[in-house]
Amino acid sequence: MGALFHKKYLDTPEIWRIKPGQNDSRSILASSLLGLSSCAAFLYLCVWIGPPYGSRATLPIAFLIWLAAPVPIIFSNIVWIKMHLILGISHSLGWLARFVVTSLIGGWLLR
Predict the structure, then answer these.
(1) pTM of the model as a whole
(2) Which residue, of 49, 56, 71, 111, has the fewest CB within 10 Å?
(3) How many distinct structural domains can be found in the chain?
(4) Residue numbers of the domain that contains 78
């Protein structure tokens, strides 16, 4: 979604660590590893819950985890940091998509 709202990122350049034109490979790698570890933790939770509830409960658990973790943090950032609301919505929807895909994979693996 970054391509859709790129201008909103540029509206507040002072809040971003990397300035336009700088190399952001390390930041992308760190962010990707954080997302990967959160999905791995979610899959571990699904396996820990296990059958018979595991495969049916993955999607509701994904939604609850999304509401409990990324949504409050992202919207707190919107309130306290000069971050555009559309960016917060796109970031939170990205986390929801990540958890939904992980829940579908987890449900398939638990069958």
Answers:
(1) 0.80
(2) 111
(3) 1
(4) 6-110
